[in-house]
Amino acid sequence: NKNRPKVVVTRKLPDSIETRMAELFNVTLNLADTPLTQDELKAAVAEADVLVPTVTDTIDSDVLAAAGKKLKLIANFGAGVDHIDLAAAHEKGITVTNTPGVLTEDTADLAMALILSVPRRLFEGEKILRSGDWTGWTPTFLMGHRIQGKRLGIIGMGRIGRAVARRAKAFNMSIHYHKRTRLPEQVEDEMEATYWEDLDQMLARMDFVSVNCPLTDETYKLLDRNRLKKLQPHAVIINTARGGIVDEEALADLIEVGRIAGAGLDVFEEEPTINPKLLELDNVVLLPHMGSATIEGRVAMGEKVLINIRTFVDKHRPPDRVLPF
Ligand code: 8YV
Known about the structure:
Layout (H helix, E strand, L loop, with lengths): L5 E4 L5 H10 L1 E3 L9 H10 L2 E3 L8 H5 L7 E3 L10 H6 L3 E3 L6 H17 L1 H9 L20 E5 L3 H12 L3 E5 L6 H7 L1 E3 L3 H5 L4 E4 L13 H4 L7 E4 L8 H9 L5 E4 L10 H4 L4 E3 L8 H19 L7 E3 L2
Parallel strand pairs: 1-2, 1-3, 3-4, 4-5, 6-7, 6-9, 7-8, 9-10, 10-11, 11-12
Antiparallel strand pairs: 5-13
Helix pairs in contact: 1-13, 5-7
Bound molecules: 2-keto-D-gluconic acid.
The site of 2-keto-D-gluconic acid (8YV) has 10 residues, from loops.
């Protein structure tokens, strides 16, 4: 059917989602599942009515300049939209949607897994065992630190931050947070969370810091070298948000010299490139951006994309609109 909107999907999505897309739209799928080059992206935005990108697509003003009048909707597969130049999209009158809510619990699970893994040295232990170097139990072998009773400072207390807080509470950690706008008192009380208006002051007092805010111009390198130096030497940084929020080079340097105890990172500044300094450190757990990587989560993300496209095409307001504001 020629009247069906032309939807270009940049990466391989779960089968059930691709099947549904093909039923509903005139869809172009990326069967190779390698990231599109900038030129391929330009070609895609030039021919599409709707683009379905992921975090691996850099949709900058250059790419958007290649979009003609056709492209009306960017229905992102993912919550974070930092890879899309929203100002340029806005100028072109393009609507942007994302997939919030359905990856909250999975991402929070992964953050909690990192909060547990770093101080308990899980991956160090695994490595020793698998390499055949385990010579048996001793009273002092692989002693880590307990998380019970420790202070967790959450940066950005949105859906994911709150889901992390709930988990950490169950592990008897005390919850602290920094956010641009303070949560309503009732929410704060329910969560038994302490608000820190001043990020530096919070950092100086935490045992763990979990980054759970979006990457924006405001949060880019929010944890720069100076801020990271405010942490106590036993503090651990967890990042399941975006690599660009933390100065990776500074983090690696400070961990190396013992000014910070360790880190659990699922996201990096230049994925999939990993700063080689990080790879040298034992007290750092590094994961390949898998926070939302559950079958259930990815299918739910795909369903959200479908709903956003369908409501848009039907001239209704898509539920997960990022743009126009
Ligand atoms: C996805 C994510 O893996 O939603 C996000 O912002 O980082 C992850 O859930 C990825 O971004 C999909 O585009």
